[in-house]
Every structure is written in C-alpha cells, then in structure tokens.
C-alpha cells in the first residue's frame, strides 16, 4: 500500500553510473539542471533527451522507475503548460475566445517548459536512483566541507540527512503497520466523507505515529551517546571517497554536454 | 469451517528487484473452535499469513474462504470480515491513541456502528475479560505499564466480539508475570467463549502448553502440521529450521539416554515433574 512511494528510493544494481563517486554525481546533476535552464530551443532539448537516454541505458535502471517520479509532479506540469499557453502574448493567434487566446508563441513556450520540468525530474531521479542515501550524504558532507570556515556545519547537516533518510522507510513501515492495526479495528482510511471527517479519521494513525517517532528519536540519541558520538571532530571513515578514472570520464562528458548546450543557445 | 486456504501464494513488490515470495502455495484448513499455534523462524511468512485471515492482504494467487465468505469476491464486505476476525498485531500497545482507556477500547465497536449502550456494554465486558478494573477506565492508556497497555489493546479487539481471534506474539517483550497473565486470559477466552484462536509465538513452551494443533511455517510453506506431540517428534527437522522443541523434551531425552525409564513425549514442565516424581517413587 505504502510500498510504492519512491522519494529518493535507491535502485540497487551494479552499473557504471552506480559506481561513480557521489560527489561527481551531485555536482553533475547540479550542472545538468543549470544547463537545462540555459537551453531555449527544441534542438537543445533534443540533445538533452539523447543524453538522458544514454545515461538511463548505462545505469541499468528500468525506465519505468525513472518515470515514476513524474507522476507526483504531473499536476504542476499541467498548470505550467496551461499558464504558458494562455498567458504568453504573441502575434500568431491560433484560437481566441473573448480575452482568452492561444498564440503560437505560447504553444512553443509551453512545450519547452513542460520538457524542462520533465527532464529536471528525470535528471534528479537518476541521481537518487543510482546513489544510495548513505553515499549521497557522504558526498554532500564532502562537498560542504570547504564551507566550514564560514560557519556551515557540514558534518551535522550530513548526519541529520542520514538519519532522516534512514528513518523514511522505518516510518513508512510503521505507518503501514499502524494503519493495518486500526483497519483491523474497523477504521476506514480510504473512503471519502467531508474534509473534517477525513482529518478526524487520521487521528488514530497520527497519534501513535508521533509517539513512536519520538520514542525512536529518544532511543537513537541514547544509542549514539552510548557509543561516544560527539560530532564530526576527528572522525575517520571506513570508506574514503576516491576520484577514479571513470569519474574523470564522467566529468569530461558533463563538460562536453554543457558546452554543447551553451553553444546551441548562442549560435 | 473457519478458515480455508487453497493454493494461496503471496508475492511482495512483484515485478521489482525487491520482489519476495512470502507465501508459496499454501493449503490450509482451520476448524471452528480450534486453538492453533503458528510457529516459524523470522521471515518464514507467519505475519504475511495472518494478514490474509482478515483481508488486510490479498493473495497474489489462490483462494481464501473465511467463515464461508470468499475474500477475493468483490461482494464480500471486508469490514464485516475484519470484525469477525480479530487480529492483534505484535506490540499492539503501539496502536493506542485515545485520551482514556475506555474511549480507546470503544474505537472498534464504534466503527461497527453499534448503539451507545451496546458499545458501553461491550467495552466493559472486554476490559473485565482482560482484567482491567473499573477505576482505571478514565485513565490515559499512556500511563499504564507495558503489560497493562497490551491488555487494553487486546481488549480493543475483543470488544468487537470476533469469532476468530488471531494474536501475533502477544507475549513479546513482557516479563514472565505479564506473559503468564496474558496467556492465561487467552486460554480462558478460548474455553469460555469457544472462539477459534490462532496464536503466533516463538516460545515452544507457551505453544506446547496451550494449543491443540501446531502449524510450522518455513520459507513461505507449511512444513509441519498436527497435534503438538506429533509435531515435536520431528526435533531434527525443527532444529534445521532454526526452531526447537520445548526444553523439557530435551531433559526427558537426556534422562532416557542415561538409562532412566521416562517417556520422551512430554511437552510441559508440570507433566515432566510428575513423571520424574513417579519414577523416583518406583525406585524407592
């Protein structure tokens, strides 16, 4: 029931993309997003499409998983498209009803926006599907380290993210369990009714869930203290992040892709 | 016939790399009024199996009939089945949420749409069955001890007056006193109300003492099924599955190997003590 949620869910398999250094993947995703916003013509997105298709093929993650993330933002895409279609001023009027009108420019722009959003989601899905949460936070910690001098607590941020990510599946499982326990007592979470009624029907789920979250937080804090955890000072890691040959190749590919996107925009 | 499974399989996350076969072609009949013990190692499919008893999970393939109603049939009201099959999950105290004990126990009967008087009556009955006294009714369930919380949670299911009661490790994490109290009350319920009880447990002692039939699950299949003494005869097979026979059986076997004339099909400590005492008397 709740197993289908894939927020940042890792797809475990062994591929060239999976083995890349997480820092390289995070920075590449960031650069990719910027490149998406540089493009302002369909030819740029044709290149992006090819690029993503190649990466997905290399990553060995089924396309189905890549597209799952799109379901969540489907409404946002629809709204963006609608706004762009109706709100863009232009000369080539295709359809008009009173003050409402569709222009050729509007259609052109709406298409671009929709593609931009879709590629954005797929691009970031590739990062989270091919990088385990632990690798991801290790990478973020390592990237943020230089900013420690200006007061950014890199280790603490990474630790909080690790814990939060670690607890998503646990809380989902817990939710599932409590829902089932209450359903066994005749609770009804599915069928409708008014908003007040629906909100009320969630109380038997939310109260136990909060209690268990606090209990777990307490236990975790105690367990960490019992093992003398005291922040990031002088901590060493079992797995050091190392940039290898394939990471240089990936960086070169990203530089090539970004330059191509810039070229397409300005010629 | 209370519960009937025909070639039931259940696969989690089918079609993904997380795919896992939890139940594999299960055939099962449980008669009305039986007291059944369900044992198996962690991950053997016990929890998945019991969630099929009240339609919380639906089989990937196969057919389930509960009290004469087919689970897969779209005309079957799952709410009705969930009311007839009371399912008490592991650590049921984690489901408590109301301000008072009384209100928490009335959650189930209220969902059934009963009249206020009937709800009131059932709550009192259920709470007295699990030994919670009237002066505690208005207390918060979160003030109670672990054992009391669990009894309140079990009362929450009993108040729905189920015909089949399924308990998933009702004694996990309790002290010996709390454990004996809960098991005693379950046995009493079975005897006085005559309902079908299915008890999932890790403790061979508890199971051997209480039930009249044992089902052993192993890797999603039913490995052994029968009366306690006939199941515990297969000690080697049980041990291979990461399970064991009651400890008293091992003691009786060891005594026998020492050349003492004692029976080895003993399941409870009391029986064992009686046999040893009788033997000592004879030797005098």
From TrEMBL, chain B:
InterPro entries: AAA+_ATPase (IPR003593), ABC_transporter-like_ATP-bd (IPR003439), ABC_transporter-like_CS (IPR017871), ABC_transpr_CbiO/EcfA_su (IPR015856), Co_trans_ATP-bd (IPR005876), ECF_ABC_transporter_ATP-bd (IPR050095), EcfA2 (IPR030946), P-loop_NTPase (IPR027417)
Annotated GO MF terms: ATP binding; ATP hydrolysis activity; ATPase-coupled transmembrane transporter activity
SUPFAM superfamilies, sorted: P-loop containing nucleoside triphosphate hydrolases (SSF52540)
Gene3D superfamilies on file: P-loop containing nucleotide triphosphate hydrolases (3.40.50.300)
Domain of life: Bacteria
Swiss-Prot/TrEMBL keywords: ATP-binding, Cell membrane, Membrane, Nucleotide-binding, Translocase, Transport
EC number: 7.-.-.-
Gene Ontology CC annotation, any one: ATP-binding cassette (ABC) transporter complex
Domain ABC transporter per the UniProt entry, residue ranges: 3-244
UniProt subcellular location: Cell membrane
Pfam families given in the database record: ABC_tran
GO biological process annotation, one example: cobalt ion transport
SMART domains, alphabetized: AAA (SM00382)
Main localisation: membrane
Protein topology in the membrane: Peripheral membrane protein
Protein family according to the UniProt entry: Belongs to the ABC transporter superfamily. Energy-coupling factor EcfA family.
NCBIfam families associated with the record: cbiO (TIGR01166), ECF_ATPase_2 (TIGR04521), PRK13637.1 (NF010158)
Quaternary organization: Forms a stable energy-coupling factor (ECF) transporter complex composed of 2 membrane-embedded substrate-binding proteins (S component), 2 ATP-binding proteins (A component) and 2 transmembrane proteins (T component).
Role summary: Probably part of an ABC transporter complex. Responsible for energy coupling to the transport system.
Protein name: Energy-coupling factor transporter ATP-binding protein EcfA2
Organism encoding this protein: Defluviitalea raffinosedens
């Amino acid at each position: 029931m709740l197993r289908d949620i894939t927020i940042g869910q890792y797809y475990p398999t062994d591929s060239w993309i999976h083995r890349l250094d997480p820092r390289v993947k995070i920075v590449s995703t960031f650069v990719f997003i910027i490149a998406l916003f540089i493009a302002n013509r369909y030819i740029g997105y044709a290149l992006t499409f090819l690029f993503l298709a190649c990466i997905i093929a290399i990553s060995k993650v089924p396309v189905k998983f890549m597209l799952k993330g799109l379901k969540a933002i489907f409404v946002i895409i629809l709204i963006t498209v609608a706004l762009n279609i109706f709100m863009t001023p232009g000369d080539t009027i295709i359809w008009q009803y009173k003050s409402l009108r569709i222009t050729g420019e509007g259609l052109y722009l709406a298409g671009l926006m929709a593609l931009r959003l879709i590629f954005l989601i797929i691009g970031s899905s590739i990062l989270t599907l091919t990088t385990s949460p632990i690798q991801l936070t290790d990478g973020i910690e390592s990237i943020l380290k230089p900013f420690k001098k200006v007061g950014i607590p890199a280790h603490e941020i990474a630790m909080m993210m690790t814990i939060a990510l670690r607890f998503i599946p646990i809380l989902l499982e817990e939710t599932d369990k409590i829902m089932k326990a209450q359903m066994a007592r005749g609770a009804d979470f599915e069928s409708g009714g008014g908003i007040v009624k629906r909100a009320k029907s969630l109380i038997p789920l939310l109260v136990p869930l909060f209690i268990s979250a606090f209990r777990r937080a307490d236990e975790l804090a105690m367990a960490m203290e019992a093992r003398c955890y005291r922040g990031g000072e002088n901590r060493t890691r079992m797995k050091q992040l190392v940039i290898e040959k394939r990471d240089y190749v990936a960086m070169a590919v990203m530089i090539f892709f970004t330059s191509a996107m810039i070229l397409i925009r300005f010629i | 016939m209370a519960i009937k499974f025909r070639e039931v399989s259940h696969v989690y996350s089918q079609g993904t790399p997380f795919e896992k076969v939890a139940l594999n072609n299960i055939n099962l009949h449980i008669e009305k009024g039986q007291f059944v013990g369900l044992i198996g190692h962690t991950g053997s499919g016990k929890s998945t199996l019991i969630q099929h008893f009240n339609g919380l999970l639906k089989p990937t393939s196969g057919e389930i009939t509960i009290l004469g109603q087919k689970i897969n049939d779209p005309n079957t009201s799952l709410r009705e089945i969930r009311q007839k099959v009371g399912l008490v999950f592991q650590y049921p105290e984690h489901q408590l949420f109301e301000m008072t004990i009384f209100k928490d126990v009335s959650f189930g009967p209220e969902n059934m749409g009963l009249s206020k008087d009937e709800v009131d009556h059932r709550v009192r009955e259920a709470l007295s069955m699990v030994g919670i006294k009237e002066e505690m009714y208005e207390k918060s369930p979160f003030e109670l001890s672990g054992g009391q919380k669990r009894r309140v949670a079990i009362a929450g299911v009993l108040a729905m007056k189920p015909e089949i009661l399924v308990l998933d490790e009702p004694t996990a994490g309790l002290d010996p006193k709390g454990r004996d109290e809960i098991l005693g009350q379950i046995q009493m319920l079975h005897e006085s109300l005559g309902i079908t009880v299915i008890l999932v447990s890790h403790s061979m002692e508890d199971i051997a003492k209480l039930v009249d039939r044992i089902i052993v699950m192993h890797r999603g299949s039913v490995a052994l099924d029968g009366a306690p003494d006939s199941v515990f005869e297969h000690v080697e097979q049980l041990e291979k599955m990461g399970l064991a026979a009651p400890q008293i059986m091992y003691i009786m076997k060891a005594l026998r190997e020492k050349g003492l004339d004692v029976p080895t099909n003993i399941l409870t400590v009391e029986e064992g003590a009686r046999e040893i005492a009788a033997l000592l008397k004879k030797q005098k």
